[in-house]
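During the no-cost extension, the postdoctoral fellow (Dr. R.K.) reprocessed legacy sequence entries with the updated structure-token encoder. One reprocessed record is reproduced below for audit purposes.
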Amino acid sequence: MATIAVDFDGTIVTHEYPNIGEEIPFATETLRMLIHDHHRLILWSVREGQLLQDAIDWCKERGVEFYAVNKDYPEEEKDKNNHFSRKIKADYFIDDRNIGGLPDWGQIYQIISTRKSYRQILRESMNRLTDQQVPKKKHWWSK
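Re-encoded structure tokens follow.
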């Protein structure tokens, strides 16, 4: 089981802040699968107040309920925690601002469920494509 911090704008939906954009293909489906696999999802967003509540409600309407929102665990209260930090403690961060961009949601699920790196997933997919699409070279003397 992993703790996964997930951004909203540009990651789950297209970036149209302060409005809610269109769902990025397979985002909520993948998030529901991760919840089903017993991972803890934290909504990790710059949204605040009603804009944040709108994002939470949007996700909930699509079957995605987060373990916590912009904090490490649901019970965490800033005024009762003298170690409060805005930095979320998570095993994975899913954000469109990653170096190299946002992998597609199928790759994200593979990375988390197989515990492989993004590099390993890309290498394996390139090897499959190469094996399928490139015919074996004939020797120069054969026709």
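The chain has a mean pLDDT of 88. The chain has four helices and four strands. The remaining legacy entries will be reprocessed before the final report is submitted.
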